[in-house]
Amino acid sequence: MTQERPITIRLFEHGVILSQLMRIANVAANTDAMAAALEITPLQVITGPVANAFIAIGLALVITRGRQSIARWFLSAVIVLDLVGLPGIPVVATMIGVPFAIVSAIAILLMLAAGVLMWLPASTAWLKQGKAG
After folding, report:
1. Cβ distance 119 to 72 under 8 Å?
2. How far apart are CA 66 and CA 82, in angstroms?
3. What does the pLDDT look like over 36-94, one tens digit per residue?
4. Which domain holds residue 123?
5. 30-49 tens-digit pLDDT
6. Distance (Å, rounded) from C-alpha 10 to C-alpha 46?
7. Which pTM value belongs to this model?
8. Inside any domain, residue 132
9. DSSP string, 81-92
10. Which of helix, strand or coil describes residue 27?
11. Helices (H), strands (E): how many in the chain?
12. Is 27 within 8 Å of 42 (Cβ atoms)?
């Protein structure tokens, strides 16, 4: 019999998905400004966030649905890369706009919160039970 997923795992999954959807919507709403600032095409602008979402959500689902705890390390690396970009938020605010920068910062912090949830003892115990059963 399958044990119900703990709240930490459910919130983790929702947090990752929400974070990535926020990023895609934020970039989509500001595609033209970003394309002009970066001197690239709108398609190139949207490709990065969509690819990042596939990777992050895919890893989250491998963790929450596949119960593969090793994927936490890969997702942790993705989150660390997000955090590296956090100090650049003021520059983004100047280039694209303050609302874009605020939503970007919230999405990064939501991803960080999700990352903490996936390493909490309840999450770890649940993942270990999946290996035993």
Report:
1. yes
2. 24
3. 999 999 999 999 999 999 999 999 999 999 999 999 999 999 999 999 999 999 999 99
4. 7-127
5. 999 999 999 999 999 999 99
6. 28
7. 0.92
8. no
9. HHHHHGGGHHHH
10. helix
11. 7, 0
12. no
